[in-house]
């Protein structure tokens, strides 16, 4: 493979540097400059023709307007292929299912697509009609390879000696026209992605983990869409402070009204009313009537009141009034009626026969993960470990893990450790921090 000019420069610099001072070269702009934005069929057709002349995998990236828009649609798609050029496509100019996207999808059929943190970008790519059939995820590959820092910037630094600026990572990509420096930033996300893929692949091959990664990549593509969340309002930030059921009713009514409004306006819900504002209103809802804008202002001022929050004050007050007037039998239950397992501290207190195997499983799985130089959550999902210990299977643990969604390589590694743990009757005393390090299960 022909080396990118900057990679050649870095290779020379690395020879001149001492091992204690690894070279890092700022990646300031693409080697061939920032290409023009593709927003017409003529430009798109020309890009497709150039990409068809290239060889090897396609490097993809997408920019969304997270924090600004309700939708997770792509507002910019970046593509690069060896000898096929670097291209910046404005998907809004074409819309989902456009013939140019259909042609692009046919072009990538049975050719590897490289993405970094693919689960973030695959939904918005699929929305416009791009459906990869072979995937290489540089972020996940780095995790499986055992690298400590797997963001795109850190990977480029550690594996290629290149530093990548991230100053435009949180901008509003729905802005039109897109500024040149934003386009330069976006182009750099795919500029070295093909070369980075080769570095990550070599690490996986050298550590005999390539088959693991390959199985994980295939599983990402085959995964069905996530089912709708049960009671999504319960995930409101700060919800842990809301203890009373009537206060939960206020959270629910405000969240649902905000969500409907945000969806209609295609604006991020938090820009209409923050989660912190919702929980603060809920916990003050029964301390006195909230009947006008001034009452809301008094409650929200300590949070750093935003004028935007009060633009829909009448709607919020209506939600509060309805929730407070709601009969008790319509209040939400304290916990969601889902299959989410209870917190681990409750296991310790109320289900010691399940807690004991769990302590042994977590400890010994962590030891094995460290031996294999792989994060525990990538070796086996902690949620699957909890489910096996909560309800031990009557048959094979390995088959139970596979049925729960584990990869075959994960089940082969974890099942012997879990089988042994299920025989334990006394908990393993481990430091509290280690015991509670896992993320709380989602509701």
Automatic annotation (TrEMBL):
Any one GO MF annotation of this record: nucleotide binding
Gene3D superfamilies from the UniProt entry: HRDC domain, Ribonuclease H-like superfamily/Ribonuclease H
CDD domains, alphabetized: RNaseD_exo (cd06142)
GO BP field: nucleobase-containing compound metabolic process
One protein family per Pfam: DNA_pol_A_exo1
InterPro entries, sorted: 3'-5'_exonuclease_dom, Exo_C, HRDC-like_sf, HRDC_dom, HRDC_dom_sf, RNase_D-like, RNaseH-like_sf, RNaseH_sf
Residue ranges annotated for the 3'-5' exonuclease domain, each copy included: 35-205
UniProt-listed PANTHER family: RIBONUCLEASE D
Listed name of the protein: Ribonuclease D
Taxonomic classification: Bacteria, Bacillati, Actinomycetota, Actinomycetes, Candidatus Nanopelagicales
